[in-house]
Specification:
Strand content of chain A: under 5%
Shape of chain B: elongated
Distance between the termini of chain B: 9 Å
Order of helices and strands of chain B: EHEEEEHE
Radius of gyration of chain A: 21 Å
Largest interface: A-B, 18 and 8 residues
CATH class of chain B: Alpha Beta
CATH topology of chain B: Alpha-Beta Plaits
Helix content of chain A: 55-70%
Shape of chain A: globular
Mean pLDDT of chain A: 95
Number of helices of chain B: 2
Structural class of chain B: alpha+beta
Mean pLDDT of chain B: 95
CATH class of chain A: Mainly Alpha
Number of strands of chain A: 0
CATH topology of chain A: Ammonium transporter fold
Structural class of chain A: mainly alpha
Number of helices of chain A: 15
Radius of gyration of chain B: 17 Å
Oligomer: heterodimer
Helix content of chain B: 10-25%
Chain lengths: 436, 112
């Protein structure tokens, strides 16, 4: 059955091979540009207000505004720093380890400039699309240390972590760096975004320490309805996150969106089913968590797998992340408050690996690479090696440097708020505001 | 004059209000409160965290009445609010020194 389906897919992709996406010459295409503008909006929406709502709904009432402030701050700070220097260092040049200063302050990004990495859209658009990825990755990390991170420390973290951790990894995987050239496939950010943020979150949770009252007090979510709304915005926004990673309005984008949606659906269902079976009730928090687990896991594989493979990946995601958040977390004993590691870290790891297992060559065929990238099941076990390589490099770089960055920031301003402030709540003590 | 304070289960509000209206009591103040007595709480599970919630939502009714109506009012509230399950609530009675209707300036029993 799989053989017949693959043949069908191959025919479909070959039939669409005449579309402009396979053009070699850099030339702005209206369709691609229109879609990518939309995708940029969708991904920005994932942070504001998607992630803001998702996270804020899960913390206690006294910290809701402060949690939203983190997503807001990540947005405006990362945006500017990305434009100033982040984009240039991530997406220019031929360097194996880092980009150049060619696009510093976005010089060279003229009205009609085109990046060699995205030949059919304006470079300004490619730059801002990538910006939205940087924004959400930084914002994600904050979830691990919810309810206790000093705002000033977080602002410093945004700048330092973006430049020292995110930018290099983005360059290595997508910007022409050594991981991409080695053969790692990561369609929309299993390593760059999810594994990266997940590991950083885990390290942060360890360095900053657990919430006061963790394990003994009631830390129940303030309003899961906000989290559900946030999940909806994230889920829909993910169509831009994965679909837009095709960098064009084409069938690969469509297929990526299908894979994304099916993985999310299956992830939600699986987590819900497991929770119902093991704990007696299917919680709403479980459903949204499963959906996000599916979404994060399919991210690196979304442009490389067929719909039924995405369903399977979603199932694995829901199950594995459920286990990580309910069993592994308690076993290791860290307070990753909003399960950034359990969902994004574990999901990113799993998805990156499974991309190497399932990759279907026909989906990634280009004139330069007519056969596309083949995964393990298409007879290319070497792909698993490339995936593992990318995973290990990301893990080590993110883990080690996040630790260093936090220690450096901690020497300048205390990472954690004062104990009295943590008890009173961050909204009123850090921001002078309160929900009424 | 007496001040009747009744802590009841939230879903019983309409029944109690209707029963009081039928015996001529046309005003009360209601607040949402949390409380516990013999009724055990419940467990909430959020991903890896389990919380025992001991405080349960209740409603607190405050009704000022003429002293002669006291027995009848207590009986009516108790009958309307009773389910027979643990957690039905309690009724307390306090004396009222003075009362005034703000709009008209009527005092004591005329204000009730």
């Amino acid at each position: 059955m799989t053989r017949a389906f693959l043949r069908l897919a191959l025919t479909a992709v070959a039939a669409s091979a005449a579309s402009p996406v396979f053009a070699q010459e850099p030339k702005i295409d209206a369709g691609d540009t229109a879609w990518m503008i939309g995708a940029t909006g969708l991904v920005l929406m994932m942070t504001i207000p998607g992630l803001a709502l998702f996270y804020a709904g899960m913390v206690r009432k006294k910290n809701v505004l402060a949690t939203m402030a983190q997503s807001l701050a990540a947005t405006f700070l990362v945006s500017v720093v990305w434009a100033l220097i982040g984009y240039s260092l991530a997406f220019t040049g031929e360097g194996a380890f880092i980009g150049t200063f060619d696009r510093i302050f976005l010089t060279g990004v003229t009205l009609d400039a085109i990046s060699p990495l995205a030949k059919t859209i304006p470079e300004s658009l490619f730059m801002i699309y990538q910006m939205t990825f940087a924004i959400i990755t930084v914002a994600l990390v904050a979830g691990s240390v919810a309810d206790r991170l000093r705002f000033s420390a977080f602002l410093l973290f945004c700048v330092l972590w973006l430049l020292i951790v995110y930018v290099p990894i983005a360059h290595w995987v997508w910007g022409g760096g050594f991981l991409g050239t080695y053969g790692l496939i990561d369609f929309a950010g299993g390593t760059v975004v999810h594994l990266n943020a997940g590991v950083a979150g885990l390290v942060a949770a360890y360095v900053v320490g657990a919430r006061r009252g963790y394990g003994s007090e009631n830390l129940a979510p303030y309003d899961l309805a906000l989290a559900v709304i946030g999940t909806g915005l994230l889920w829909v926004g993910w169509f831009g996150f994965n679909g837009g990673s095709a960098l064009g309005a084409n069938s690969r984008a469509a297929m990526a969106i299908v894979a994304t949606h099916l993985a999310a659906s299956m992830g939600a269902f699986t987590w819900m089913a497991l929770e119902w079976w093991t704990r007696g009730k299917p919680s709403v928090l479980g459903m949204v968590s499963g959906a996000i687990a599916g979404l994060g896991t399919i991210t690196p594989a979304s442009g490389f797998v067929l719909p039924m493979q995405a369903v399977l990946i979603g199932l694995v995601a829901g199950a594995f992340c459920f286990w990580a958040c309910t069993w592994l977390k308690l076993k290791i004993g860290y307070d990753d408050s909003l399960d950034v590691f359990g969902v994004h870290g574990v999901g990113g790891f799993t998805g990156t690996l499974l991309a190497g297992v399932f990759a279907v060559g026909a989906l990634s065929a280009t004139p330069e690479l007519p056969g596309g990238v083949h995964g393990l099941l298409e007879g290319n076990p070497q792909q698993i090696v490339a995936q593992l390589y990318g995973i290990v490099v990301t893990l080590v770089w993110s883990g080690a440097l996040t630790f260093v960055i936090l220690k450096v920031i901690g020497a300048l301003v205390p990472l954690r708020v004062r104990q009295e402030d943590e008890v009173m709540g961050l909204d009123v003590t850090l921001h002078g505001e309160a929900l009424q | 004059m007496k001040f009747v304070i009744a802590v009841i289960k939230p879903f019983k509000l309409d029944e109690v209000r209707d029963a009081l209206t039928r015996i001529g009591i046309h005003g009360m103040t209601v607040t949402e409160v949390k409380g516990y007595g013999r009724q055990k709480g419940h467990t909430e599970i959020y991903r890896g965290a389990e919380y025992q919630v001991n405080f349960l939502p209740k409603l607190r009714l405050e009704i000022a009445i003429a002293s002669e109506q006291l027995d009848q009012v207590i009986e009516v509230i108790a009958a309307a609010a009773r389910t027979g399950q643990i957690g039905d609530g309690k009724i307390f009675v306090m004396p009222v020194e003075r009362a005034m209707r703000i709009r008209t300036g009527e005092t004591d029993v005329d204000a009730l």
